[in-house]
Specification:
Binding site for substrate (chains A, B): 242, 264, 267, 333, 366, 420, 425
Binding site for NAD(+) (chains A, B): 135, 196, 219
CATH superfamily of the largest domain in chain A: Nitrogenase molybdenum iron protein domain
Family (chains A, B): Belongs to the histidinol dehydrogenase family.
Radius of gyration of chain A: 26 Å
Number of strands of chain A: 15
Catalytic activity (chains A, B): L-histidinol + 2 NAD(+) + H2O = L-histidine + 2 NADH + 3 H(+)
Oligomer: homodimer
CATH architecture of the largest domain in chain A: 3-Layer(aba) Sandwich
Protein name (chains A, B): Histidinol dehydrogenase
Largest sheet of chain A: 6 strands, parallel
Strand order of the largest sheet of chain A: 1-12-11-10-13-14
Shape of chain A: globular
CATH topology of the largest domain in chain A: Rossmann fold
Number of helices of chain A: 16
Structural class of chain A: alpha/beta
Number of domains of chain A: 2
Chain lengths: 435, 435
């Protein structure tokens, strides 16, 4: 096993900015070969529909079927999978789904309108999307929580048809994932993966209905396909590797912090775990906890590579200096392992989710605290938000002018539209001006 | 001049669905040459900064400068441009800005939090983006309204730094556009256009600060550049040609409707104007108005081509049948030129903006009614919303668990995380479970 070697830096050192920038740097590589492979898959699915989907399932998932019915699970099949789960998993999925639902109800936007002093009715009508698609990756880990986090905001928004696709390598699909689909209100599941699943959701086939928006994580093929169909349908944000920033005053059990850092590092070799403290001794203690605990971890190889490649311990002069670093890093997950985390909130401008206090592990948020675990990564919390109900609602502007108001405002339109040389616009408004 | 030849179809005919689908079809062409030209421009600006910008201004805009100062307008210069405008334009810009500001204030989202029965503090902190960039096209028409519509939601959201870029062909820039920037609260203007302006906003140069989000319309170079920098920064929606769907009960002055259709058709040859009525005679009357008025229009060539290529008159059996067509078309602009438009709202699921009643011309919404004129096109109102304050705010989830709550919920995390084979997640939560 390679030695542990986490980069440590002092924020007062001259080269600190350079080191931090280079550690934070992460850019998705756009590969021309990948782009053209995905474009071809999408074109095939658009042209040949179900036939192409069944061929791709055989080719990529070694799942040989004679009809789309074998790739389709209806509500009954989804419920049956839930019923096959052991009691503790059923209960945990139910608790998670309920808590996520409760939280997301606070995000529902309502329609509104008012009449202004000119006599114009103005407003916004808020409606849910009709039909959405959730992509759930296959692979080793059955991502039940991902199903709940992606489907529940759609359910709360009032989306009537929530479709899920997930690959079934060798024809196998996890009851845990299907059970999560049951508690999250998924309408039907198609056992499809990769770019072909995204293409089917975007354009529809004889069997798979086309959706209005596609969300959920996936490999490079899935991510590229989502980018290519963006505009035809909506997509969620573009996700990079997961990250955590822990700020600690030195009074939290260092084993706790070590394990919190591991919980991000275990995601992938390019995940990023950063710890900030003013206390050098405390950073040493966490380092010692990491050395002690790492050999006990199932995913120690991934954790080690992540910590060595992208892990970072930052010593600040005083803990308050961490605030500026938080806003500069704009972390996906921020743990404030300090005494009075609420007092910091007003100074925090950019973070996906803020975990307040020593007892609030980031893992709570991943599974069952209530807020969404789909969060902006790689500094994009500067402009992206957590996945939410607002991603599954859309708005229509409402404008209703009385004859008087149309006459009055028509004169303003006339000046502006003629200034822009758009005379049909001008005359459309002018003809409603009273003589 | 080519003859007027608007497609007319009856919704009761057998081939109606096919005709409608083919008339609505519109897909942006993604050109590999364009992609690579834009990628090269972006790379040049990232590598050589201001020097590249000055070279591109000379090459593309015939604007030869010795320093970036000549491409930079500060707040004083922006105000001076406003002061050079004639009184009627100043006044019209002020009215428009004020009305747009008033409407958008209704969209501001506030932070919220609550403590649930488990003792977990849950909430969402809403903050404005720090700095945004507005792209304003050059060309023949000085798009003052576009400046107001793109900048004002950012201003209302509380964005502290609103930067505008606009090309200055031959060194010329419109006082009307700069005057709009003044009333809309733009902080500074850079006289830059094309993909190079987008690159400068996304990555920053020695002079141009990098922004968090780029919004505003542009030509194919600009649109392609925005797609390429998406992820590094946020962007607004992908816009297609403008469209209008007018539903009329046959009781509105046909000249009014003809001019309303012109007001979209004058935008571009691929803009789309559709009229639906149950009344064949009325459709004939609007046709006659179009024939009468078209020769009087400044932009008659564009209008004629738009109406011939993409214009559509649809006769429905009864007017209520229009509701299903509205939701199928999901129009950018919907004019309900009928007696009681409010009674239709509950049935309308997809539309960018709804103009209610005979007096509410679409042009009112373009300039000064209050709602935004940046709206989803080409059926994307199924999942996109008008540009709004929500595009310039983002959210951070808040989670604060007491020791008791962390212990209780830790047991749920344990089951779910172990079910997903993510044992560091599990142990991170488990270590906070009370013995």
């Amino acid at each position: 096993m390679t030695d542990l070697n986490i980069t440590r830096v002092d924020a007062t050192e001259a080269d600190f900015d350079t080191v931090l920038d280079s550690m934070l740097a992460w850019e998705s590589v756009s590969d021309a070969q990948m782009q053209s492979t995905v474009a071809e898959i999408i074109a095939e699915v658009r042209q040949r529909g179900d036939a192409a989907l069944m061929e791709y399932s055989a080719k990529f998932d070694r799942f040989f079927v004679n009809s789309m019915a074998e790739l389709t699970l209806d509500a009954e099949a989804i419920e049956a999978a839930f019923n096959r789960l052991p009691e503790d998993k059923q209960q945990a999925l139910r608790v998670s789904a309920q808590r996520v639902e409760d939280y997301h109800r606070h995000q529902v936007a309502e329609s509104w309108h008012y009449t202004d002093e000119t006599g114009v009715v103005l407003g916004q009508q808020v409606t849910a999307l009709d039909r959405v698609g959730i992509y759930v990756p296959g692979g080793v880990a059955p991502l039940a929580s991902s199903v709940i986090m992606n489907a529940m905001p759609a359910k709360v928004a009032g989306v009537s048809d929530i479709i899920m696709t997930t690959p079934a390598p060798d024809g196998k699909v996890s009851d845990f994932v299907l059970g999560a689909a049951f508690v999250a209100g998924v309408s039907e599941v198609y056992l499809l993966g990769g770019a072909q699943a995204v293409a089917a959701l975007a354009y529809g086939t004889e069997t798979v209905p086309n959706v209005d928006k596609i969300v959920g994580p996936g490999n490079a093929f899935v991510a590229t396909a989502k980018q290519q169909v963006f505009g035809k349908v909506g997509i969620d944000m573009i996700a990079g590797p997961s990250e955590i920033l822990v700020v600690c005053d030195g009074k939290t059990n260092p084993d706790w912090i070590a394990m919190d850092l591991f919980s991000q590092a275990e995601h992938s070799h390019d995940a990023q775990a950063i710890l900030i403290s003013h206390d050098r001794d405390y950073l040493d203690q966490v380092q010692a906890s990491i050395e002690k605990l790492l050999p006990t971890m199932e995913r120690q190889d991934t954790i080690l590579q992540s910590l060595n490649d992208r892990g970072l311990f930052i010593r600040v002069k005083v803990l308050d200096d961490a605030k500026a670093l938080i806003n500069r890093i704009a972390p996906e997950h921020l743990e404030l392992s300090i005494d009075d985390p609420e007092s910091w909130l007003a100074d925090i401008r950019h973070a996906g989710a803020i975990f307040m206090g020593r007892h609030t592990s980031e893992a709570l948020g991943d599974y069952c605290a209530g807020p969404n675990h789909v969060l902006p990564t790689s500094g994009t919390a500067r402009f992206f938000s957590p996945l939410g109900v607002y991603d599954f609602q859309k708005r229509s502007s409402l404008i209703g002018a009385s004859a008087t108001a149309a006459s009055e405002l028509g004169q303003v339109v006339s000046v502006l539209a003629r200034g822009e040389l758009l005379t049909a616009h001008a005359r459309s408004a002018e003809q409603r001006i009273d003589d």
